[in-house]
Amino acid sequence: MSNLLSAKNLTKIYGQEPNQTIALDGVSINIKKGEFVAIVGPSGSGKSTLMHILGCLDKPTNGQYIFGGKEVSQLSDSELAKIRNEEIGFVFQFFNLLPRTSALKNAELPLVYSNTPKNKRTAIATKLLEKVGLGDKLNSTGAELSGGQQQRVAIARALVNDPSVIFADEPTGNLDSKSSAQIMEIFKKLNREDRTIVIITHERDIALNAKRIITTHDGKIISDKKVR
Amino acid sequence: MDQFEILNSAIVAIRTNKLRSGLTALGIVIGVASVILLISIGSGLRNYITGQFEQLGSNLLFVIPGQIGAGGRGPGGATINKLTTKHVERIKREVKDLDGVVPTMQQFTTIKYRNLTLENVTIVGSTEEFAQVVNRPVTSGEFFDKSQAQSGKKVAAVGKTIVDELFQGENPIAKKIDIKGQKYTVVGTLKEQGSTFGFDQDNTVVIPFIAAQKQFGTTQVNNIYAKAENQESVARVRGEIETALLKDLEEEDFSVMTAEQTLSTIQGILGAISVSLAGIAAISLLVGGIGVSNIMLVSVTERTREIGLRKAVGARSTDILSQFLTEAVALTVLGGIIGLILASVATLIIARFIPATITVWSIIISFGFSTLVGVVFGVAPAIRAARLEPIVALRHE
Fold first, then answer.
1. What pTM was computed for the model?
2. What ipTM describes this predicted complex?
């Protein structure tokens, strides 16, 4: 099977000499459709920077990155926005729900930017909120939901545009162990449905839910192995 | 992103910070309300004055002492009034196509009827053609005739205010009023005219010119009114009056004005005043706009994470730009609507005292201005929001 995304020799350097920080130092990685990858490493190891580049939120300083057959460094900002909108779903550590906005409206957000008609938006978002177990919380705002519930809204939001891949940046970093387990169950279930998932985490037991674990250290990949 | 969603998110954002939005919009409210109000007063006055002059008729010309225009000392002012009845006679003799010419003399005094007195009444001394020349017909009785005028008989035509306040509904015809000890018989009542700048035109008594001369001990003529036969002859009549008067007067001793000319002069002055007042009011709109800009910048900073998230899920820079621009415009248009309502209420109240009308123009201007202010002052914060990198915005704590 062909690669969904393929990165070669990615480097990312922040700042100017002599105060440069090398966040990524020649990273190469291929991910195929249907994989469940965990990227682990201590803080400062470059795992978040790697995810931002793979998620088309940022561009590498050097190196080649091909996503869905397109060379990302050649794309304009609005083409990148389109890829993020249609091909990628994000789940963040701090949930990042819009305040004072219902779960339904939050989940609909990516569809608003893909110009999906309102009735269709509502139908898709409702279906996905039901799928993550929040069918009875459609009109609750972030403040009325627990951390685990908020993260489930964020997962529904990441799924509404039926993306090729979901990137989750420390998705359980702000949750208790019970909620963390529930969230990981959802990711595993999505992966069983052939959804590609990439998780960033520094917790070993969370990473063990994945099928492949990539370890980074000082901006380099130091190990890459299948675990299941 | 469709327009409805953009507007919806703007409304949510405005409602989220009600107090802050309200205070920001207040600057626009005050600006728009004062601009509209001043335009209303200005246009109300213009309409009113135009109406007053149309009552006089466009065929009317008047001669006033002194010269108006460049280097002139202004009417009445420092000039010595050299107009006399001799000039009235000369105009009558030498100017063709006249439909009447009358001298007028004005004094303010107290008049009495039985035990009632009325102060500050305008006593106008004129001749029998007065009613016809200045277009003020009598509504009951008769205006004094030529023989009464020439003999200086003590007769009077009275305005509506006199009838109402001095006679209190009693029929005034053939009653005697007392003007500074002299008894005048009322022969007619004059058509109602209303007031100009709070000056009651109906608080007037017209008496024969000769009687007025004796009464007030002066031969001076304040104004000469002449009526041309038709509108086409107004310009020629004006020239002929000037020629006639120049025989023994200097150019700076008098001015011949036409109703239309005077109207356009007054309208010009009023126009300039209302434009400059509205201009000053527009400064407050500018200050309001700066307030909008300021609050939008704060809002962009506060919502950096929201902007980052929106970009991460697919918002393009133009989506973010239009979102924040719409928010600023919604805020100013809201201020514009409240300002318009306030100005309309204020206009209704003010209209009891001075003429004022809300015009379609002022409504267009208020919406146009508030939208413009929103765009102009919202664009900088919106660009700042649109330029945020998704990754920087997401990291923002």
1. 0.72
2. 0.92
